[in-house]
Amino acid sequence: MDVATGELLLFGDGGDSGVPLVDALTASCALPVFYPPVVIGGRSCADGGLRAVLPLTTAAAFGPDAIVAVRVGPSFAARPAERATRTPPLLMAHNRAMRVLMAAQTDAEIARWRDGPVPLILVEPRVEQAVTFAVGRAVAYVEEGYRAAVVALRDSPAATGLFAGGAERPVDRE
């Protein structure tokens, strides 16, 4: 995202393919307060999730048969983190404000998309609040993501066509 204009920028296929992967990834990690914007082609770039947390319209522009979207960003349904962190008050206020803005944006995008032009398969892992940098819990989050994907692909009518022609549905590992 261009921080000066708010324009959502795409890199790679369907976007600016001349941007080195490391630059695109570094810009995608640029979150206000935590990491500064990255200059790409003279533009200050930050995480596109600030502009489009769940960019369904962008995904639909690629002409898919269905969109599988994984909601891992801020959510009003997220449970409190299992481990309390000692966060400075100003940073805590920033995080809370970002959570509200991003969760509301995501809820609105999903609501607009319910009857969208492309079927939506929404994967919603149970996530915790304020754990963006909890890399020590990565394995637990991967397992939860797998569980949520199995449920979404099993229960979504839109997923039925994805498994035609002999493709197997994922199975619950439990």
Overview of the molecule:
This protein has 174 residues and is an alpha+beta fold. Strands 1-2 form a two-stranded antiparallel ribbon. It contains four helices and four strands. It folds into two domains: 1-51, no CATH class; 53-163, no CATH class. It starts with 20 loop residues before the first helix and ends in a 19-residue tail after the last helix.
The percent range for strand residues is 5-15%
- Summed over residues and divided by their number, the pLDDT gives a mean of 85
Overall domain count: 2
Largest sheet geometry: 2 strands, antiparallel
**Tally of separate helices:** 4
Structural class: alpha+beta
Q: What is the CA-based Rg, rounded?
A: 18 Å
The count of DSSP E runs of length 2 or more, i.e. the number of strands, is: 4
- Strands of the widest sheet, in order across it, are 1-2
SSE diagram, text form:
Layout: H1 21-28, E1 38-40, E2 43-45, H2 56-60, E3 67-70, H3 89-113, E4 120-123, H4 138-155
Parallel strand pairs: 3-4
Antiparallel strand pairs: 1-2
Distinctive features:
two-stranded parallel sheet; 32% helix; two-stranded antiparallel ribbon; 8% strand; 2 domains
